[in-house]
Amino acid sequence: MDISKRLIDKKLLTIIIVVTFLFVMLVSRLFYLQIINADELVAKAYSQWTRDLAFTANRGEILDRNGVTLASSNTSFTLYARPNELSKSEDEINKIIEILDIDKEAFLTKINKKVSEVKIATNISKKQMLSLVKLNYSGYYLTVDSNRYYPFGNFLTQTIGFTSSDNVGISGLELLYNAQLMGIDGASYTQSDLIGNKISNSKTTYLSPLDGFSLNLTIDSNMQLYVEQAVNEALIKYSANSASCIMMNANTGEILSIASAPTYDLNNIPRNDSNTLNAQSKQLIISDVYEPGSTFKIITSAIGLEEDKIKKGYYCPGFHIVDGQRIKCWKSIGHGSQNFAEGICNSCNCVFMDVALSVGKETFYAYLDKFGLKNKTGLDFPGESSSILLPLDNVKNVDLARIGFGQAIAVTPIQLICAVSSILNGGNLIKPYLVKSIYDKNTNIVVKENNTEIVKNTVSEETSNLLKEYLVNVVEKGSGKNAKIDGYTIGGKTGTSQKYLNGAIAKGKYISSFLGFTQIGNDNIVCLFMVDEPKGYLYYGSIVAAPYVKNIFENTFNYLKIERKDYQERLVTMPSLIGLSLQEALSILKNAGLSYEYTGEQGMVNYQMPNPYDTIDKDSVVFFNVE
Is-catalytic flag, 294? Predict the structure, then answer.
């Protein structure tokens, strides 16, 4: 009897436990459904007994610093039909296909589908939309769409970027700021039965779309135009792989203009040619690294001055032997005796090898870090690349000597211009930026604003002022004469850097560059211009790149109404050198007081620039070739 009672008690306990467990599970499930997952279930239920049509939000605008629209949204319309609500009369069908200019058979196929809703046509114009509304046929519904439009077409292409057919950012600022630009789509909701028929006497609820925020850039569209014209002209004139330019306010970090060529029209994107699209969508100033060549001598000069490692005099025999290796100066016959200022003016490799070796690799590398050349700049743009530096422990004297004049180191143009800007502005490394502010165009409320951000200090104000004087001298008297503008103060440094192929120097392949600056008001404006692999005899940065920086600055001065200082205009006629020997050509140029550069050593002159009998400035640099 006791055994039976215990068995009954155990069974009863088991039942109670099972029932309790099931009850807890049921309560938990109800709690999950009614409390935790309530919103999702309500949304699902709502979607089952309503039909919705989307109203695409306008993507935010992109404007330059002066409010000029660079990217906007055009409104178009989409027509939907609910087959169960259509009369499908012959007259109705004919009028709709006439307005939309669409194929009748395709239209009939769509409206005869056994679905609750079908899309009839997209990209309907305002005129077509008004004609459809006037018909007022039952069962047809229009929604508002938004399409991206770029008023200037082929302008600031890589920087602005482009969107997909769904208005989602794919590249450039359109990609980086996609979340801010997109906005929130609206919709209309109509109650319907299980098979999609509209419930009689039901109301349609409209949820208006919210437009995206707009971007106000640091770019000045006028300055951008000058830069765009220059890179396109250089690309064509020299049959180059590419041409690039960036202009920046060295005191604030604002990018005033930036361009790379070749490029394409943002309203006619080559989506079917992925190779061309990928190549021409790259903003080379930000994504590519290169050996800067002689423009890097500005950095070496600043380090030498700051560390007090500048000698009273230097001698250049045309080469420097380091670790048993003979490293050539660009001028094979040498520059002879010169002081440091003259060394900068002559762009003498031997001087800068000496400076770098005097500083030492540990100190030199510490300055590379100071100048931000070991890290990305942090520019608000996707795809920024990092520099390529030899590991400090692996750097030998011969490597340091080459780094001193811009070889054996690879940086991005944006890194270089930021580093040089810190020298020009008194010693502050500034973080560059492209977007000045993000704001709601409907309310003019600023959501985010970017301002000048000092990253670190690089050099003293004394070094900054002295080096600026030296660089102005380069344009006034040295290799940068082709950037000189009478009546204005321009400084800068030429660069002609070698390219490599499979680890070896690629013969005849160069990047020609010029980094120039001027002062407008209290701001130092710096401009870096680059031409990748110019074809023909011309490849020196002084000849290829410097004149374009001159043109850009000239246009900028006129645009900003910067007055010219008093000057004495000196124009001369370019003598003809064709058919002369090297010595005869040199004698004529020296007597005319013209600066020159040349290639070849024997034979007769077969090419010259400028052309014979052109009217030129007496400070122009003449180039000729001897074969």
Answer: yes
